[in-house]
Structure formats: structure tokens, C-alpha cells
Amino acid sequence: MSAVSKSPWVLHYDASSCNGCDIEVLAALTPLYDVERFGIINTGNPKHADVFLITGSVNELQVPIIRQLYEQMLEPKVVVACGICACTGGVFKECYNTLGGVDVAIPVDVYAPGCAVRPETIIDAVVAGLGVLEEKSALLKKGELVSPEMPPLPSAADKMVQGERVSDTWKNNIAAAGEAPLASVAATSSTEEQ
Amino acid sequence: MTLLSFGIALVAFTVLGPVVGCLLTGIDRIISARMQGRVGPPLLQPYYDVVKLLAKEKRSLNGVQGYYLVIALLMAIVSGALFFAGGNLLLVVFLIGLSTLLFIVAAYSTRSPYAEIGAQREIIQVLAYEPMIILMSVFFFYATGSFNTSAVFELSLPLIVLIPLIFAGFLFVITIKLRKSPFDLSFSHHGHQELVKGITTEMSGGNLAIVEITHWYENVLFLGYAGLFFVWGGPLTLIVAVVVALAVYFLEIVIDNTYARVKWQPMLRWSWIVTLVCTLASMAIFTVLTVLSV
Questions:
Q1: A1: nearest CA in chain B?
Q2: In this structure, is residue A18 part of a structural domain?
Q3: In chain A, which residue's Cα lies nearest the Cα of B114?
Q4: What is d(CA B119, CA B131) in angstroms, rounded to the nearest whole number?
Q5: Same structural domain for residues A37 and A77?
Q6: Dihedral over Cα of B105, B224, B166, B188: its sign
Q7: pTM (2 d.p.)
């Protein structure tokens, strides 16, 4: 075991859903489970983190955010999807506003199922992620590490990544729906742009 | 202090400084964990962290940041070597101040709003502790008749007896220098989140490792300041100094774990009040003693 897997610093992002897994991640960080035994530290900074813990299902607005956090993390890095919503979309999978699990936004290395995911499962998942960290670290040393391919972006999120503002998306949606009372909203947002 | 003794101290401090600093940080993390009812990380965890950071991908918003941090590290090494070689205390204080200054400049160089807030807080911290540290050097001169740290060996009584209030003031501000709660405004070691990660927000991978190593050197130097007050007569009293330095470190860990972080205004206010009271009272005592002896 090299030093890479002895000090995995964790970044935690809660996408959506019921926040149960979010609370379980925090529970895993309490003295009861004491993840610092494994050198795990919760950091609020993607630039310091090695492991990206995401809970909850992903909707269109979150895709650019998750991608940005992922891209700000330095290699070697590991993504852990915590909870069944983060794995597949869970009970929210069929919802009109849900795209699915975390893997619609970024490549996921470890899936930790559960509703809500148990702190023990989270710790196991991070420890499983250490193996991936080791592999990636060895590849990075050899200069052979290739970034995994990003999943294709959903339409609205695609526009936002390309620099279009959220308000533009709304405006277009409103224009498409052809609803007269909301035209003033569209007008206001266009004056803001000027 | 000859050039030779400085050279020996430089080599010794460069090698032993981080070893001692790393072990101190490891012990700190274990003791902190036990105080919170946890088992805590292995003793060598800070070492693993640094090795991991050095192995990470290299990426920086501004290429110059790494240079600033390396020079800050070198300043800390030279400053510590000068201190332990028995050199000029005032020069030691200014060199370590320069090291902190370069650290602040490194944070500013990225133009990240979060790093800038951290850097501004670091400046406030420097404003809070620097008067006390400089005045400590001045009173060191009053007590020993020299700015050289080696002068303590010629004293018949330790500095703690001669200038006890200065030691009290120093104890207050060392909490800031060791980046301990309640004064860990610009960044802290703890897992809790703040304004992203304060002054180190934009320092990642190898750069963050350099920051960590610099901090190990600094910790050893600052505990050296504490030990300085307990050396007198012969080299045997160095044992007393080491014991006191470790006791001070333990005290700081207790403070770290029992106090919540304060805002910057109380930090600045209290450290200046303590500085003023301790130095003015020491000055008064000095004057009275001089008058009485005449």
C-alpha cells in the first residue's frame, strides 16, 4: 500500500433526493465511525480532494456543477456514488426532472448502494476506491493515465456548460411553451443581460 | 556563532526539523482524536499526506506560486537554523516573517476570491502576533544584553524568571502562529470546512505539500522560542527547555480542542491588549529593578 491510499481526502457533494444519504455521509465522519483512522479527511476543497463522494440523484441543473467539481480535482481521483439514488436514480429515476444516477454526469468508479446507505457501506466503498486510486496513481507515475470518457451531456445541461445562462434556458422553454403571461419574465432577463 | 556552527545547524535543522515537526503533528492529531473520543490516525499520517500530495498531478493557476512557496520554505529553514545555531533572534523573527509574507503573496498570486480572503486573514494574524514577537526579541536583549540566542547560556537565571510576563504574552500569540483554534482564521488542520480552505484554497498537490513541510519547520522554531525561556547556565538545561516546549505544545492542543474559532476583531484586540499589558508591565518592573539596584 502506497501513501496514495493511506490518505484519501474526501469531497462531499449532495445532489438531490431526500438527503438521507447526505446525513449518512456526515454520520460516517463522526467520532463513532472515526474515518480518520484510515487517514480520511473531509475537505471542502475539490483541489485538495482524492475521493469524490456524491449522494442523491442528478438533475439537469447539477450536471455542470458536478462536472466542474470533478474537473477541479487532481489525478489520481476516484468517484464514489453513495446510495441507490446516486447509483441509478433510485425511486426518483422515473421523475420528469431527474436524469438518473451520478454516471449521467461523470464517470463513476465505485457504486455504494443502500437506502439510506449505511456508514459502514460508505467506508467500505471508499476503501474499495483506494484500489482504484492505487491503479490510477501507478498509471500516472508511468505517464499512461488517460482520463475516462465523459458521458454525453443532456440537452439543457449541454447548453449551460457551453456558457448559456440558466435564465436563457428558462426563456427558451417559456418561448417554446408560448405562454403570454410569462413574457414579462423573459423581457426582464434579457434587459439584465444588457 | 561562527560560519561553521551555522553550517552544521543548517544541515541538522534541514534534516531533523521536518522529522520532529512531522512527529509533533502526528502526535497532535492522535491526542486531538483521543480528546474527541476517537482512535485517530496513525502516527505517521502527516508524512503519508505529504507523500501523497507530492505524487499528485501538478496543476496551478499561476506558475509563480510554486516559486514563492519554495522560497518561503527556504526562509523558514534558514531562520530555524539561525535560531538553533545561536544566531541573532531579531534576524530570525524577520526571516520567518518574510517566509509568512511570501506565503501570503503566493495565495494572492492566484487571484481566487477565496484564497484572497484567506490571505487577508493571514495578514490580520501577522498584525496580531508580530508586535509581541518583535517585542519579545527586544526584551530578550534587555535581559541578556545580546540579540544572540546563544547568550542564554551565560545567564545565571532563566529568562522565565527575568521576564515572566513576556513569556505569558508569547504563550498567547503562539496559538496564532501554530494555527490553532480559536485563532486559526486563515486555515486550520481540522477536517471542518470554511471558506473553501482559506489561504490554501488554490494550493494543491506538491504546492500544498510544501506548505505543510514549511509548517513543520515553523512549529519546531516556535517551540524553540518557548524553550528559549528555560535555558540558562549549561547545556544540561536544554532538557528542561525540551520538556517545556512539549508542555507548551500539549497546552496548545488542549486550547485547540476546547475553544471555538473567534472572529478576527477579538483576535486582534486581545492579542494587542495582551501585548501592551505584558510589555508595559515588564518595562515597569525593569525600571523599578534598575532604580532599586542603583
A1: B48
A2: yes
A3: A45
A4: 19
A5: yes
A6: positive
A7: 0.87
